[in-house]
Fold each of these.
Amino acid sequence: MLLDFNSEKPIYLQLAEAIEDDILKGIFEEDTQVPSTTEISINLKINPATAGKGINLLVDEGILYKKRGVGMFVCNGAKETILKKRKEAFYNNFVLSLLEEASKLQISKEEIISMVERGQGR
Amino acid sequence: MSTIEVKNITMNYGPVKALDDVSLIIEPNKIYGLLGRNGAGKTTLLNLITNKIFPTQGNVLIDGEGAFENDRALNKIFYMMEKNLYPEGMKVKEIYKWTREYYSLFDIEYAMALSEKFGLNVNKKIKSLSTGYTSIFKAIAALASNAEIILLDEPVLGLDANHRNMFYKELIANYSENPKTIIISTHLIEEVENVLEEVIIIKEGKLIEKRSVEELLNSAYVISGEADKADVYLKGRRYIGEEGLGKFKSATVIEDSSLKDEALAKELNLDFAKAELQKLFISLTNS
Amino acid sequence: MNNTWKVSKYVFHDYKKSMLVYYGVILGIFILMTAAYLKISAEPNSRIEFSGFGFSAVVFLFISGLNSFKAYFKFMQANNVSRKRFFLGTMVILILMAALMASVDAVCNVVFKQLIPYEGLFTQVFKMQSFFTDILWSFSLMAFAVSSGWFITMLYYRCNKVMKLVVSFAPVFTFILLGIIDRLSMGIVQRVVKLFLAVVLGSPYLSIVYYLLCSVVAFGLCYILIRRMPIKD
């Protein structure tokens, strides 16, 4: 897990995304344990409260859950939850601005679709 | 869980005002950075909190009790001082043993384990330790004390990079497993930026900043790119820490990061980055 | 109370060693004395007397007092112990040491006398034998020695350079001043001093009261000094 401390994105957010990435990659399988806040904060040399914030974010989103006395585990269906979340983000960050730009350049919907097919063919 | 309340502390040494009407509250179980230039008054503040010196005006409360000559309150604090107050002829392990007399929760096995990790020979006398190892032994004593509040004055003085790295990790591990209040007074701001939760900045005896690191860093942002383009963005804006290399330029804009003009930056092909605590500190404490 | 005792423990752990050495030396000297006595008393027309251990104990305690501040104070400050508690803990152990040495001394006086013609300090001064008065008197004298040593070291620690000079010269200066006053007043000072000594050294009981009072004053002054004592190097 490598975080970019210079990036504008808050560390806790980067941490949450890094864990999500690892879940998607299969490094953390569903219903298995993820590193504790202590382990993460020691490893990355960050304040445990920051690490905790990232973990809690994932708990709130239903990606991780806490097993009392043991630690944090990946929820069942976490992969799906993450993909769904990312797809929504993809829509908001890329698709909407694509459509905005396309409208500026007066590109029709059909043209967009054929461009997509062209791109996919490569 | 203990709270420290510093109430209108003024410290005069004759005509010199070492601290000027400083008031602040240290909430429990946070890692604080106490930052300030040389002679700003950091050590004076720490000395006042721990009954080493007495304020000209004002007072210090620990958990609502006056700190003055109060053994019960003072026992909640372990103060790692820059100055060495331990007898030169005593061995490290003897000092651990005696510290346990006064700090009953002192974990001597943990102290021994840490000493081994750092390569500190506990059979050595204090006077034969290097500057680095003197700091190490005092830092270990602080961590092993299990006091509710730990004050560290320049804890990594003289430590090599490896040991500094180890120290921060041990500090984080200790804090994570046994939450406590930690105040680190240091000049090495870059290193410690991500470890701190809040900063307290003292300038010429006055408290000029006490905020969470997150908030402080969000009050500014870095813009970088081609020098001419950057200047366009910077026009009319307050900025500090200008750096340039040939055609490239970067600067820290003093403006809430939520106010950054993304559209303009995109147009000018400029990049944003997070503000650096050290740069903000330098700007805040320059005369 | 227990916490104050922890301070005493620390101060004493240092003195354990020096006291053992001290008594070791005393024992050694005593053996030498016995050997000398046996040798010399065999000769006709020989007279020999021994004394002095009481006085050496007083000196030992005075020096201990001188030694009981700086290093211990710094250590207590490192461990966030209040000055009040440091004062009490140290005072207790210093008094106990004085009591211990006074008792040992009185016992020695009795024991030595069996083997060699030895005269303790008390006997020398008051020309009488009384075990319990001996202990009490020795204790009061030793308490005064240790407390004044402690006071002097604290005073020096507290003073800055200028004050140190003043304090060092004050006794000499007072002495000279008294001498001048004496000359001018045609001997009044001398008479006062003689009267004073007669009172103090005339009766062992008055002597005890006097030294105990002085100890109380010395400890009291120590407390006043220590209240706001800063940390220096």
Amino acid sequence: MSEGTFFLLTFILYALGAIFHLAYSFSRKESLARTGSSLAFGGLLLHTLALILRTVESGHAPFTNMYESLSFLAWSTVLAYLFVERKYKLRRAGAYIFLLVIALMALASSPLMPKEATPLVPALQSYWLWLHVSVTLLGEAFFAIAFVTSILYLRAESREKKSGASKRRPTAAELDSVSYRAVAVGFPLFTLGGLVFGMVWAHKAWGSYWSWDPKEVWSLITWFVFALYLHTRIVMGWKGRRSAVIAILGFLTALFTYFGVNYLLSGLHSYV
Amino acid sequence: MKALLRFFTSVRLAIVLLIFIILASMVGTLLPQGRSAEEYLTRYGQLSALLQRIQLTNVYQSFWYIGLLCLFSLNILICTLTRLSPKIRRVFRPQLGSEALSLLTLKIKDRFKLPGDVHSIQEIVKRELRRRHYRVRGKEAAGKVFLLGQKRALGRFGSDIVHMGILIILAGGILSGLASHRQSLTLPEGQTIPIAGADFSVRLDKFVTEYYPNGSVKDWKSHLTVLEKGKEVRQKAIEVNHPLKHRGYLFYQSGYGWDWPRARLEIWVRKSDQASAIEKIFLRVGQKQSLEGGNIDVVARRFLPDFVLDERRQPATRSLEPHNPAVFLESWKNGEKVFSGWVFAKFPDFGRVHGTAAADLSFELKDIDAPPYSVIQMAKDPGVPLIWLGCAVLMGGLFLAFYWPSRELRIVIEETNGKSELTAGGSASKGSDAFEREFSAIMDSLRKTR
């Protein structure tokens, strides 16, 4: 089977995962959510195979164009979600995470995105491509989890305000806490992959660890927004609504760094 | 002075500064940076003078951006230092003797009675805590035993270590800004260039471009030799991602090109009346070559590697890549000009089609042999080691702050009615769920001791 077939099967499994999770969020049957997550886990395995096949076929890391990196971001997000679900027993976010994942996959396979595996330009021929991109995108996947749980928090909070805390899991407080924990995992990963590995690679490839390239500046902005999140939360004790808003802004900044900078601003990072 | 100190210790200041830095950084990516004054004038007209005056065209080197970063550094430094000494005291010289009642106000707590005297219980508790890798301190006063167990105390300093890492990185950045030295070297093959400020020179022995089967560039390799007092001391083929390092100087493959003004052009001259008779001549721009015993003269006037017509319909080159090489030739036969026009390597029929070809002569640009040169970026940046040190400290601090939660357990043992009553309370810097589990496991195993 080709990489394309695996990609399609993965897409179908993620879509089924989303449907089961949506059904769960209406009917509250635990078994539905479990089935959904198992399907998504199957999708993750097929997705991994697709990425491996892509690597073998192209002979380089599977994130050198928009199609590849979107697909990898989707993969990381599923991985991050399954990790968070297992660790914090949070099922409610599943439906929305998988909708986000499907959107990423659909965007990856849309005709707008260049798909063909091209040989690597000299600047990308480095093992730092693996380290820099994979760790950064994994960090951003955790920011995506924080984004979705924060949005769900805002909804749950306004509902609880009206009708009091319900016994339905999870409560707003749980969503708030999971959102924080996702940032706590994503922030060190993003720092390591995006900023530290990025600087090391820039030093090796361009001769300067920092050039104020728009992508660099926007990664720094993303980092500052999450630093703001952590300081307001840990030192000033902000929680709930205000924290959620910062986490949402943080993910949007990360998204702009990843996506918007390529299309709207020009600079050194014009590979993808 | 005190008020100033208080101003800099506030987290609120840090938040405000963070927001300002975020906004300023955004502005720098929205306006093109570091362009020429003319470009700003055509882009923004009247506004351009103002933009340049307030340094919006050079945000990251502007006095206000650097000022913001300095304020931020000062804020971090003072915040970290003022919070450090109470933390150090708490970890290394902790107060023992918290009363049982104060322990019971903690979120994680327990109280129960055990048979046996205070001293034997104390030993059991100490053993249990040490088994779980707690560092135990104890003191006795008024018949009571006060115990303190600490674990992963370093975790408490995670955020301080992160802040130190950031300060080291900023210091490295300042050092780079003040003392780094960068230069772009353009080296044709065979040329040696002395490095300014250093007593060695670098020679480019060979420059190779490798291509993929589809024609795109796979790699550029510059074979460099380092010479010290005329002696060869080091050789390395540098590529993108693989620089050469010598005495603190780094040499990066950053570009390439061809020395077009010195290109040797291979031109085939054909006589229209006898199609097979071809004469090959080699010309450089400005050179004249004679054919047929001096009857015919050919001169190359101008060469463009990537021919286009610019907005004024004048020949120009779009790039320095040989995408559309063209030469302007003139030819005389017996003193009479018979040809004058552009000859294109990619469109050999151009002259015939456009009727510029002389009646009996046609020219083809068959090959261009220009000496390639390599562009090598030289950098000496004394800030770099500090940057890596700062990054390592930063990552270590982040790990400690998020994944090395410090735990503290205080226990008071007092005698009541021949039994020992044990009161325990605990706190963790993060991950209190996991700590709560450990706490109750410790309490359970203590309860079982009879």
